[in-house]
Amino acid sequence: MSVCMTGSESEARAHQDCLTKPRGSLGRLEDIACWLAARQGRVKPEPLRPHIAVFAGDHGVCEEGVSAYPSVVTAEMVRNFARGGAAINVLARQCGASLAVVDVGVAADLAELDGIVHANVRRGTASLLHGPAMSGDEMRAAMQAGRDQACAAMDGGANLLIAGDMGIGNTTASACLICRLTGASPEEVVGTGTGVDQAAYRHKLEVVGEALGRVAGQPDADALRELGGLEIAAMAGFYLQAAEAGVPVLIDGFISAAAALAARCFEPEIGRWMLASHVSQETGHALALEALGLSPLLDFGMRLGEGSGAALVVPLLQSAVALHNDMASFESAGVTDRDG
């Protein structure tokens, strides 16, 4: 986290300004290329080798009727991931990302399922409405599972990491975390998640409000244990390990932003290793990104999770790097610069 990036970023910007185009004419593509160059400590960043880890876990708060889908869907979707049939499988293949699916807290027994990483800490969290979602040891074990996945990805050559999520009920846990860690009200943050009706939405608001009241006055560092999910804790650990190793992460949606805020409780400077891929349709995501100091690259009205929004942005980042690295300079092309 102590790497000095100022020199390489200024050198990358100087290189960018010599390319055969009006300065700034590629907009945020120029900024992205220079940002990546700085994180790699290079004038020209290496081509991106993305890795996506989808962390799955169930939530006891589903017992409170906050989701349109039953908890069994979490395990069913993990099986779908393992078969390669989900949106994130399609997008990972399209953008050339390696993909790992990690059971860190699914309620069902998936021990016999091939094609996933088995790192189950417990069979779903407790209901955050009535007490801590998990113990401190369980939170740390889930975070370590995330750290382990980041290490494995980086050992395999990945230089851009994405965390995705799967967990029925996790928009409620994430809304609690975002409210607790930004000071926003439930009305500003809570959305309809997987599509609850208005009565269920009002109930979800009440559940989030009561859970926040239960933890009022507790330290920020306790928020993840009290209000989070096992997959959210794993994502936070994933982000922390990447930042410690000096590898940038691409933040996905609402759940990812909650995990990023939780990770910031453990490392306040972690945001400088993060890019925001998109702003989701889920209420409160834009607010969470603002609190992290991040500006999203896309707004496509998405709210799927899984890492899908981040995967969609990978080709955009790859284009930014290719333009930065492969365009001719005014000098090499024999083109007169505006000052020449």
How is the secondary structure organized here?
Blueprint lengths: L5 H12 L10 H13 L9 E8 L14 H12 L3 H9 L2 E8 L11 E2 L17 H20 L4 E7 L3 H13 L3 H4 L8 H17 L8 H5 L2 H16 L3 E3 L2 H11 L9 E3 L8 H8 L15 H19 L3 H4 L7
Parallel strand pairs: 1-2, 1-4, 2-3, 5-6
Task: Tell me what you see in this structure.
This protein is of the alpha/beta class. The chain is built from 14 helices and six strands. It has helices spanning 6-17, 28-40, 72-83, 87-95, 136-155, 170-182, 186-189, 198-214, 223-227, 230-245, 254-264, 285-292, 308-326, 330-333; strands at 50-57, 98-105, 117-118, 160-166, 249-251, 274-276. A four-stranded parallel β-sheet has the order 3-2-1-4, sandwiched between helices. Helix 5 crosses helix 10 (230-245) and helix 10 packs across helix 11 (254-264). The radius of gyration is 20 Å and the shape is globular.
